Amino acid sequence: MTPSSQPHQTTALRQRGEIVALVIILLAAAALNLFQLAQNGFGNTYYAAAVKSMLTSWHNLFFAAYDPVGFVSVDKPPLGFWVQVASAAIFGFDGAWLMLPQAVAGVASVGLLYILVRKIGSSVAALIAAALLAISPVNVVVNRSNIFESLVVLTLLAATWCVLRATALGPCGTIRRSLAWLLAGGVLVGLGFNIKGLEAWLILPALAVTYVCAAPLAARLRLRNLVLMGGVTLIVSVAWLVAVDRVPADQRPYVDSTLTNSEFDLMLNYNGLQRLVGEPGYNGKAPVIKHNKGDPGPVRLFQPPLGGQVSWFLPLAIIGMLATGWGINRAELRAAWLQKHLSPSQARSQAAVLVWGGWLITAGGFFSVALRFNEYYLAVLAPAVCALAGYGIAGLWEDRARSNWRGWLFVLAFGLTGVEQLILLAGYPDWGAWQTPLLVGVCVVGVALLVNSKLLLRMLDATNRSRGLLQAVSAAAWLMLLIVPLRWTVDSLTPQHSGEFPISGPAPLTRGNTIVPEPDPVLIAYLNQRVGQARFLIATTSVEDASAIYLKTGRAAMAMGGFSGYDPILTPDTLAARVASGELRFFLIPAANLTTDQAQALYPDDFAAADPLFTTHITNDLTGWISANCAPVAPVEWQTTPSLGTQQLFNCAMQH
Q1: DSSP β-bridge partners for residue 558
Q2: What DSSP character marks residue 288?
Q3: Of the candidates 589, 616, 594, which has an alpha carbon nearest to the alpha carbon of residue 606?
Q4: What are phi and psi of 558, to 5 degrees?
Q5: Which sequence spans correspond to the domains of the chain?
Q6: pTM value?
Q7: What is the pLDDT of residues 23-53, one digit of tens each?
Q8: Of 14, 18, 148, 240, which sits most exposed with the smallest number of CB within 10 A?
């Protein structure tokens, strides 16, 4: 072997090793996403019912109808549902097939994040970022559900890839094709909007700043192209909204979660401003904040209610972002803006900070102050955290032998990351009973090892074989910080972590998740025997009840007030007309609508111990009309175990 061939052989070995490592990471991601996927049932039954309804007609498919009759739409844009409809049409309508697109998208996102980080960073940084995303708790639970965050993340990563190509940093990127790639990125962000609404726009500031600062074009061309991208993004985003709103209201489903029956209202209010400031209360109540997400503020994401989903390596990501940013020479950046010139190394550092740092700041800033969102929304933040953590470990590793303050950032990042993990564990003392002392030991021993290895590295000659051992010790210290978040993720592979609001970590059912049970078989038998040719099997104020009944029977179940129960779709008069026409006969509404005499007569054994108000969050004019004009059904006829619960069945063919 000639000396000149040795570098080529070394490079080939490294490339093969990199490929093997990536394949292992992708296989691990696939295993986590697909493990016993069928055990999760239908996941979010509201979304599953909508997919089943969309399979019944092209009309329902286009308008994203929640029920097969097309009474009301679902409260999200349609593209994610269309992906699941395609899966169900090919493989059959089953919970696992509805979740398969998200599981596949999750694996694809891991691979795409590797490509993106590798494009502007080292192979080590790319592999670390991909591995962290593969085991990210919030991403794993959404990848195993029929929630659409996985599809949004994949779409936004693809948009980021296009914008980086537009800056001519990647292979095949040229000035001539810069605008085409930029517009492709805008189209993808628009498609993301049609999956999950304004959530997809959270990365637009990062993409815009990256292109303006990094594209090798004159300033006026960069700004012109950016305006064109904004126009394309807007057009693709709102095209479906415009199409729906132009259809007469009586020829389409009512738009869920709105007061004006408008898709723009849904997107700008319920799925827009209200996500930030909270939804308005009903009957003069204060804005509603659902579930415990911690107090809004700069440290919110570092605290247990939200931090366990995505923040296990957030301190490392922030330090990595700052360390990478400090490496950028301001004079060169100014020269790049004025003279359209930037060295490759500066361009890579700049792109890393602008893309991932901007993503982290905008998405993280939103979740730090927003009042109404579900924990699983944090999946859109995970790619930025994982990418910056990858850059952080790789960059700080190279700096650890320096004699200045940058050399100590490696130890500081390890210590702060360990402290953050201890803070998250403190929120779950029962679950972390044996992990807390283990993590304390890992932090103490790890810091000691890193300090000593840093000092020894400065004293040892570059050819000394002991350097390899010290490097292995440093790597092992960091690997130990994976123990607790990895167990957190593995413990989340249960049916209790799917459901209406999938959430990772211990005790999900007490932290906001809901598993909707199958409807009582006695109720289903009672309805089937008596409903006749009514258009709806039943109407209810609970979308969970309506979804479960429809999924079980295939018969339309009306959610009278949409998802929230308060949509003004019906009035007492229009409800009475539907009953008179034979469309509706049975209603499942809150037991609070029973009079005291009715409750005492129907449930004599339970009434004495019951709250006389039968507290509920939905009693309105519609339920008042039902209780005044229909008869409550005796519990023995529609309940397996007759008892006074939160719901009561009324039969409008039986008058008082």
Answers
A1: 539
A2: B
A3: 594
A4: -85, 125
A5: 5-422, 521-651
A6: 0.92
A7: 999 999 999 999 999 999 999 999 999 999 9
A8: 14
